[in-house]
Structures are given as C-alpha cells and as structure tokens.
C-alpha cells in the first residue's frame, strides 16, 4: 500500500456526471487542494453541475479538449499539477453504436494525449521525475458479458469488449498500462460498475426513466428486460477513486462495484413505484408534473414499452470488489434503497437542471 498525498488536481471531464460529483466530493474531502477542471463541454458536459463550487477560490474551470496536447501540457506545468484524474470520455453505449468515431477520438486519442503530456511534464523534465499520479477511470464493460451463473469480473478477467464504447475504453486502459510499464508513469486504473445519482445525463437508464415518467412518456425497455447491471451510488465511486489515489499501488487496477445486481425490468418497476409513492401525498408534484400518470391516479408502469434490443447488448455485468476491499479497506456504503430514493428526490428537486438539457440541445432520444 502506498501513502500518497495529492495536492494539485487536474480533473478531466469534471463537468460530466461522475466528474462533477467527484469535484464536489474533492473540495470537501481535500479542503487544501487546488482543483483544475478541464472539460470540452460536449452535449454531456454541464457547468451547472458545478454551480455549488464554481465560485470557490480552490477551483478553476478550463474549457478545452483533452486532445489539445499543448493545452494539457501547459496546465500540468503552469498549475503544478501532481494528480490527474481522467473522467473525460464519450460514455453512452447507444451513441457508440450509432457513431463510433467520437469514441475513438476522445477515449483513445484523448487519453493518449493526456499520457504524452503527463510523461513530458512529470518524467522528462530536467532535474528528474517528480512524484505524481495519473488515475484513469474505466468501466466494467471492458470485460465483456457474463452468463447468469458466471462469477463476477475480477481484475484478472481477460478483456473482451463488445461495443465500440467498451472497445475504446479497453484501448485507453491498455495505453495507460503501457505508459506505466514502458516509461514508469505512476498510474492507477479503476474499473467501475454502473453508476447512478445526481447530475446524470437523462439518456442513461435511471434518469431517463425518471424524466420520462414525469413527462408521461414511454419507458423503453430493451429486449426482454432481463439484462443485469450492478448499480453503485456515484458518491461511493468518488470515495473509491480517492482511496486509490491515496493508498493504491502504482500500476495496479482496482474494480469498484456495488454488489447490487438488478435486472433492468426490476429497476424500471422500482423507479415507477417510488415515483408513484412520492406523488401519493403531494399535490405540489401533481401540479408541477400534470402529465405524469400518478398525477391522474394512474400507475407509472403503464408507460413501460418493450422495444427492439440494443445490438450486441451485454447480458450481465457484475463486479468482484474484493481487491479494493482487502487491500485498501474500501466498500460501498450507500444502500440501494437509500441511494435510489436520494436520486429520485434530487431529480424532483432539481427540475431546472434537467429541463434545461431537455429544452436545449438534447432533443433526439425518447426523453423528448
Ligand atoms: P459523462 O458522459 O456524463 O461525462 C463525460 C464528460 O467528459 C463531459 O463533461 C464531457 O463534456 C467531457 N468530455 C467529453 N469529451 C471530451 C474531450 N475530448 N475533452 C474534454 N472533455 C471531454 O460520463 P460519465 O458517466 O460521468 O463517465 C465518466 C467516466 O467514467 C467515463 O470515462 C466513463 O467511461 C467512466 N464510467 C462511467 C460509468 C457510468 O455508469 N456512468 C461507469 C463506469 C465508468
Ligand atoms: O432506454 C433504455 N432502455 C434500456 O432497457 C436505456 C437507455 C437503457 N436500457 C438498458 C441497457 C442496459 O442494459 O439498461 C441498461 C443500462 O443502460 P445504460 O444506462 O445505457 O448503461 P450501460 O449501457 O449499462 O453502460 C453504463 O455503465 C457502464 C454507462 O453508460 C457506461 O458509461 C459505463 O461504462
């Protein structure tokens, strides 16, 4: 176990779902740290997700692309960054099926640009290498798909990515590994299961369900609805990354999971039930969301529609988190019952955040 003290952070993709949660977490967990956020503000990036911290003197936001070598190099150098956490990515599987190019560009070429710049500033500088960390945020999808009886993914499960998204993440993971093995860059990687929580873009399953129920729109369930995902509350993921930064062994990868497997259809039914319950005693919700079934005493699950399956749809993901638990003492501590209620409450209380997205550029999926 190492004992590293991160001081000056560069958080790439810090205006996205997990990145913004991480920045919010970081400024509380490391009150002395300086945090520079680099984000291209693609359709998935949203400065409003940083509203509560944007005026902090500890935070600086830079609008830019991780593929811009000079920009990244200058930031690392000029801001004396010692710790880079890479969240920047194209992250939606369906989009990667419709158009893989952006995934190759950002996830592979972008990550490689970060690695090159980090090597230049941290390893090649005169006076010798400085202590640093390059943490790469990856996913369980690189391991492929499990059968119902298969054991969960461990860190030594062979990579077997199935979607263009998963393949691009796998490629970036390999580059991170290679920069450690070949050049000695001080890297760590985490492979995490499906996250849920505040600030998630409403194209991903859970926020899409919430928003569509409130608008009285269909709830699309791909295929037979029996695909399984392992859900983790986003704040637990952020805490896991922080522990890896501080205590993780250089060059290692760590799986982070929720030990919380659900079929998609059961997630859909759960979200429907919880929203119906929230409406039961709330005239205000009924007034604010008159198109929601629960506003007219109907059940939200009447909106469920089975639709054509996602091509190449992975059947099951499950993460074995024993390594991070045994080595670093991390385990997820948000019960799903608690986390999902907090998430639904957050979307009910932060309508302007998601309405701005839906009323703005996001008009192409089922949520419109
Ligand atoms: P997201 O799509 O919500 O956010 C991605 C962010 O990256 C956005 O703010 C976007 O503007 C920014 N970005 C995209 N291209 C960029 C570029 N070229 N330069 C700079 N910024 C750019 O994604 P997320 O769900 O927060 O995922 C973050 C990371 O975590 C990704 O690497 C993803 O693969 C990984 N991950 C996500 C999950 C999940 O369930 N969401 C699970 C495991 C791992
Ligand atoms: O409308 C839908 N209907 C549906 O049945 C959507 C959007 C999804 N689904 C299914 C597909 C998946 O089996 O729900 C499951 C979850 O779908 P997504 O939210 O798109 O997530 P997933 O494809 O599992 O990938 C997520 O977890 C791993 C993140 O988006 C990735 O960034 C992360 O790496």
Distance between the termini: 48 Å
Q: What is the SS-derived class?
A: alpha/beta
The strands making up the biggest β-sheet line up spatially as 3-2-1-4-5-6-10
- Give the ligands present: nicotinamide-adenine-dinucleotide, thymidine-5'-diphospho-beta-D-xylose
Main sheet characteristics: 7 strands, parallel
CATH architecture of the domain at 8-197 and 231-259 and 315-335: 3-Layer(aba) Sandwich
Shape type: globular
Total strands: the figure is 12
Report the portion of residues in β strands: 15-25%
- Give the helix tally: 12
Give the proportion of residues in helices. Answer: 40-55%
H/E element sequence: EHEEHEHHEHEEHEEHEEHHEHHH
CATH-wise, what's the superfamily of the domain at 8-197 and 231-259 and 315-335?
NAD(P)-binding Rossmann-like Domain
Radius of gyration: 20 Å
Poorly predicted ranges:
361-368
> What is the CATH level 1 assignment of the domain at 8-197 and 231-259 and 315-335?
Alpha Beta
CATH topology of the domain at 8-197 and 231-259 and 315-335: Rossmann fold
Q: Oligomerization state of this entry?
A: single chain
Overall pLDDT: 96
List keywords for this structure.
single chain, 368 residues, alpha/beta, Rossmann fold, 7-stranded parallel sheet, 12 strands, disordered C terminus, binds nicotinamide-adenine-dinucleotide, binds thymidine-5'-diphospho-beta-D-xylose
Commentary on this structure:
This protein is of the alpha/beta class and 368 residues long. It has a domain of 240 residues: NAD(P)-binding Rossmann-like Domain (Rossmann fold, 3-Layer(aba) Sandwich). Helices cover 41% and strands 15% of the residues. It is built from 12 helices and 12 strands. A 7-stranded parallel beta sheet has the order 3-2-1-4-5-6-10, sandwiched between helices. A 3-stranded mixed beta sheet has the order 7-9-11. The longest helix has 23 residues. The site of thymidine-5'-diphospho-beta-D-xylose has 16 residues, from helix 6 and strand 8.
